[in-house]
Amino acid sequence: MARHITERGVRLIKRLEGFSSIMYFDIAGFATIGYGHLVKPNEKDLFKNGISESYAIDLLKKDIIVAENAVTPLITVHLNNNQFDALVSFTFNLGAAALQRSSLRRKINREEHESVPAEFMRWIYAGGKKSSGLIHRRKLEAEVYSM
């Protein structure tokens, strides 16, 4: 059975991403709209006039399912809801490949939960530079994970 993020986790992602009704380029240079939806090349015309918040929420729900489906097979130990929410937020932001290759994943799967907050804080760079936005995001994800 598929596991799902909690409503609190959805609110966390919405807060961290913020809402934009128009396309913009995120800190890593990716075209983005809504609540952190990465615009695919075939979607650029679709979004050229912007989107409503309700449409952004629909996109968010679909994007969260992708992140949930990435976390579930990569984590082999039981997670409480807060831990799962934090990892879905992390994966939503960075993608499944980042989680898959991370020491964060390895430490979680070895149940080294006390070292996980420090692992989140290794993911604070964009374009080779520390990002204050990513520092804030990882601190919140680490807090949620540790609750």
Description:
This protein has helices at residues 7-17, 53-74, 81-94, 96-101, 103-109, 116-120, 132-146, and strands at 20-25, 31-34, 37-38, 125-126, 129-130. With 147 residues, it is mainly alpha-helical. The protein has a single domain (7-146), classed as Lysozyme (Orthogonal Bundle), CATH 1.10.530. The longest helix has 22 residues, at 53-74. It is globular. It starts with 6 loop residues before the first helix and ends with a helix.
Comma- or semicolon-separated keywords:
three-stranded antiparallel β-sheet; 5 strands; 147 residues; two-stranded antiparallel ribbon; Lysozyme; mainly alpha; globular
Concise account of the structure shown:
With 147 residues, the chain is mainly α.
